[in-house]
Please model this.
Amino acid sequence: MQQRISYLIHLADNALILGHRNSEWCGHGPVLEQDIAMSNIALDLIGQARMLYQHAATLINTYEDAGAEWLLQVRGTLAPGEPVTEDSLAYLRDVTDFSNCLLVEQPNGDWAVTITRQFFMSVFQLLLYEKLQYSRDSELAAIAAKSLKEVAYHVKWSSEWVIRLGDGTEESRRRILKAISELWPFTGELFQSASWERETGVMEDVAAGACGMEASSVAGYAVDYASLKEDWMTRVAVVFEEATLDMPAFASWHQSGGKEGRHTEYLGYILAEMQFLQRAYPGSEW
Amino acid sequence: MKKSMMPVRDNQEEQVWALLQEVCDPEVPVLTILDLGVVRQVEVTGEGEVVVTITPTYSGCPAMDTIKMQIRMVLLEHGYNDIQVNTVLSPAWTTDWMTEAGRNKLKAYGIAPPQYAAHHELSTGLFSEAGVPCPRCNSHNTHLVSRFGATSCKSLYQCDDCLEPFDYFKCH
Model:
């Protein structure tokens, strides 16, 4: 159960942190329509994060061994005896308790960086949720099926922007090339399993049975990330070709650690802003 | 959901369904929640407890909390005191569940109703778009302005004949 909860929190952290990054564009978009698009995508991602955190919180609160050491980390600064909630998971855990990939916490940079980050992550989420909708965990499967429809729009929107920028003006091309070179080293982590996943065999792959009505009874509840890599590369390459961009070699060096709580300096600043109110005025509501 | 697809209901459940017809989507107030197809089930137990099951349109749709509260208010006003509003995610909501009446109301309100999933804009390639008729002049000579609009459920179009910009309730 510990691994399953960690897995849900990891998926939720990815969605929340990228959603928060996108929300930083609100009121700063290059044109009104794209400002609204960023807010819409942020809303979808934060909504997905909420469902995943709620599901994790339910499992945590019904977990028998309430005093287990690993639970302390999940509880963050929550007062003893207080039940874990979606809010406590988002607002009361510290940097090293978050297990999102490093990619999603990278700063917004210019429009090209934001688009590239969204494109890489949306294609990944699309492939992930396509499989996760057959998870043995029926609640997770339902969340994935719901999120899939939203992520499909994110993929389409960000793909079109990659093409506009890559095959656009000299300036837009220069900027997206820079964005790709900056963000590419963070894509490798998407396809790696964290040590807590490998050690515990959490990666009993959904895909094993994901091809029929029987899927949910025979499949696992998680997805083997490594199995997504080939499809991800193919989908990215199709859009890059259309955008007249060269596909970087995958073998180049990759940064990782986010899934195990070792983050870049940026996550602390995100949490400082996102969590300020709940830290300063615990339990306040609006 | 089409009426014929509903299971047979007893009188009390029938009454609750009728009351739910009074609850509108706060963001698109011409639509009731039944038009939208978000009410999945109504149950009235022998003890008089009312259980209404709804499904969210979009994961982050801020209207869902308001809708839950309004369901509660309407039922309380009509003498139901034991109310439970549950949320289910599966099967995921689709605009195909929107009623014909709802589609007509949307169009009259100036919002182009969703196409059916078979004509989904996502099944088309990049930069292509669903052919959405203008809700004002019915022209098919329209173009997409932005895939995302003022609420999660809408995108922005413009008519190239009457030149009016309009919202499209996008296919989901």
